[in-house]
Give the backbone structure.
Amino acid sequence: MNLTCAIDRHVKEPDRLYGVLDRSRAGCDFIAGDAYPIGDMASYPWVVPWRRQQQDLEGFRNLKRWFLSVAAGPATERAYSGGGPCSNRPTVTEESKKVLFGRTGAGSKEA
């Protein structure tokens, strides 16, 4: 599989899964119906980085309604209020690239 195929797959798979969540939200407030269960708590963080996943919530009306509803909940607001300093840092830094990609099989520290 070449790089283009891998990138394409990782953009299309969230789109497919967002579609599944969108269709299942039709007529339901939460994943298991009317109650706010663990399924919503587990699914919400996966949708939070929708922009980085190259998705547009405007195309998923039911998912967007659900997402905004869960985001506005007091427990979600409390949980995400303390994460600002961590959530705003880049995922990959130059230092982490050196650690992840700068080693060879011969045991040298940098390539």
In short: The two ends are 26 Å apart (CA to CA). The domain at 3-101 is CATH 1.20.1050.10 (Glutathione S-transferase Yfyf (Class Pi); Chain A, domain 2). The chain has one domain: 3-101.
